Amino acid sequence: MSIARGDSLNAWELSPVEARHFPGEPAPARDPQNYKYINGFVDVGDLPCRVATWREVAARNVSLRTDWPVESLYLPGNNRRVEFSQFRHRPTRLARWCRTRLVAPEDRYCSFRLSTRGGVHIWVDGVLAARFEPFTRNQTQETVVHLPLKAGGSDVIVLTEDMAERDVNWFFELVLLDDVRLDVFLEGARLGRNVEALKALSSQVRTRGDVISGAQDVVLAFDTPARIAVDIVARISTTSHTHATLLDRTLHLPAGATSVTLCSGTELPDGYHTLDLTFVAGDSRVDRSIGCPILHDIEPSDIGPDLASRKARALEHAALHGEMRMGTATAILATGRADDPRLRPIIEDTLLAIEERRDCADFVSVPLLWAWIRHQSDFPSDLAERTRRALLEFRYWVDEPGNDVMWFWSENHALCFHVSQLLAGLSFPEAVFACSGRTGAQQAALATERLGLWLDSVEEEGLAEWNSAAYYPVDFIGLLALVELAPEPIAGRAKVLCDRIFTMVALHTLGGVPAGSMGRAYDKELRAGPLTELAPFAAVAFGTGWLNTGVASLPLFAAGGYESPAEIGAYVAPDDGQVVTARYTQGYGEAAQLSLYKTRYVQLSSNSGARAGGYGHQQHVLDLRFASHPMARSWLNHPGEDDPWGQQRPSYWAGNGVLPRVGQHRNAAMALFRLGATARLDFSHVYAAQAGLVHHLDGDTLILEGGKGLVAYKALGPLVAMENGPCAGIEYRLTGPDQGWAVIVAENQDLEAFTAYVRRCRLRHTGGESLVLERPDNARLTLDWTRGLLIGEAQAQEPFGGVVPSIALERL
Hints:
Layout: E1 2-3, E2 12-14, E3 18-21, H1 48-59, E4 72-74, E5 82-83, E6 86-103, E7 108-117, E8 119-124, E9 127-132, E10 141-149, E11 154-168, E12 171-176, E13 182-185, H2 195-204, E14 206-207, E15 217-221, E16 230-237, E17 245-253, E18 259-264, E19 271-281, E20 284-294, E21 301-302, H3 307-321, H4 326-334, H5 343-355, H6 361-375, H7 381-393, H8 411-427, H9 440-461, H10 472-485, H11 490-508, E22 509-510, E23 513-514, H12 523-527, H13 535-542, E24 544-545, H14 554-559, E25 578-586, E26 592-598, E27 602-607, E28 622-626, E29 633-637, E30 661-665, E31 668-673, E32 683-688, E33 694-698, E34 701-706, E35 709-715, E36 720-721, E37 731-735, E38 739-747, H15 751-760, E39 762-765, E40 770-775, E41 778-784, E42 788-791, E43 806-811
Antiparallel strand pairs: 1-13, 2-4, 2-6, 3-6, 5-12, 6-11, 6-13, 7-10, 7-12, 8-9, 8-11, 14-15, 15-18, 16-17, 16-19, 19-20, 21-24, 22-23, 25-26, 25-43, 26-27, 27-28, 28-29, 29-32, 30-31, 31-38, 32-37, 33-34, 34-35, 35-38, 36-37, 39-40, 40-41, 41-42
């Protein structure tokens, strides 16, 4: 291997990860947002663990270690960074040693741009050559280092460290700046002669098809025949909070094969699962993680004739099939199954999360309190006393001292903490809460005040995490508990907000799958809509869809008295020839200016309020959903990282490395990207599912045909279809200095006629601030970088209104 100027050095021998609990001294924190929620906000000050880290780092001397075993190899391929990002529920100091050997053409210093999140030490031939330790939380810091390299070869050892406060984007990257070629060797590693063949397979691997359904097999597919026989160790686990192992199996891929069957889909439950693969041939090993979607029934089910029967069915389903979380325990208790052997381990795990103050403990403390208030007599006696103690010792807000990494500051967490504080205070009014020193009555009074502020904010501004299939179910944890268990007026205000959220879900649900632009999105929510925790809410509320194992809050909906508004069902499935449109705002400072155009067969949803040119943490700004298949979905974005299977925020498919300017008028939308010279990736791209969609690519135009729904993507330049690797058949890229797109939606049209119409449309960049779409039968649309979308010759703007959707049902 060798690298030249501009290349990243990403071939390393790796030690095991060293991890140690590192909490620091308890202290109160602060809430800089003060009920003004901004997606991607992380400026919450320095938590005790980080203060302790800086104190330790300032006073220490780090000695070189060379006695560590080589656990694995980091090889060039899917990521230019040397990355070990992960999630830790408790404050954890992380460290890993990395080693490589560089050979220069002559003895000389070579300059590298070092980017890191965390801290880095670099030794060359046993001598410390660089030390860079910013240790800022999830913020990339850069410097230039100069390494003395020898013509005969130099050993380079890196110690990379970070302080994990829950999600930690931990990496370093060394980019060669000099015009020189360096040879790279991993001399102590047992690469073996087969490593290149294994790397090729790992970079190509994906499961066959967008989803495995019915009696289909889970098949690993590759682009090119395996050059050698390979063993593949495959482990499948859930992407839910439990990360339960579902399958552990070793396969054999013969030489010359392009696929291998892992298992029957019937061996796995529904879900968007994680598939960890290790490719082995002789003494060579290469690791890879990919997604594995399982949906046994692709046709939505009729859940029941009325809301009461649907709630009863959902509660029974959760009690029997829910994952091992507190929501399942509430369903078990609500259905009279207090003798179920799963009840004790679920409550014990919930209590441990609360006692250790793990991140997301607030998500399970609310259903624990629900169960305690409703079914305390069914708790085993020892767990009843432990529950009381855990709730009295919990930390309920930032003003109470702590040295945990529980995240208080996002919209959903703030709600759940306040609800937990209220319900715990009401449950133990005379007791003293250890962390705050307040009585339960005082806790309840303070929580009531805080909940009033939270509700004031979302009633006035809307939700920062609009339409989120990941976070609406978390909002429902708190809101449904308030409707059921809180005193007035809080309970009534929570009900009104539930009504509003269900209205937005109804607007954006098509074919049983909630979709649309989202304030916060992850790959698994985008790529597997019917498998999200929000999908069963739509099924229960509207009558058809899918139930699954998600239990964050669905059992609270099913067991409680709240009823979603019956009249919003008219928005879910428009009649043939009918269109639903909606425009409204959500989020602080109108972070979302939302437009929806929806027919029976296809819907287009976008956010024109995204901060164009900014960092798109998890904002999903333009979305298309077809009724032809539960996985039939498409969107465009600018990738936020190198790896299509990565989990950064933003990732390759979820969020945006650079946000576009977006505008939508009825069935047409436009997007204008300004990537600039410093963008990590120089293309924007379309994700287009294969399930339920037929793709037609012609130069600058991609037409997707899903049943009677049609969508055209028209770009400023030719589109390139990815034909290999994990994005084969689903990705279309646009490169070049002008990154402009138009999206046009139609239904019940002949494909040939629609194609001819799209050809007559003209998309052009003015060379200045604007992108222009000219259509033969509609007003010209101009997307101006500064002013937004302008309609017609008069260049008028269409108002968005307020946080309550302005909805119209019309005939096409």
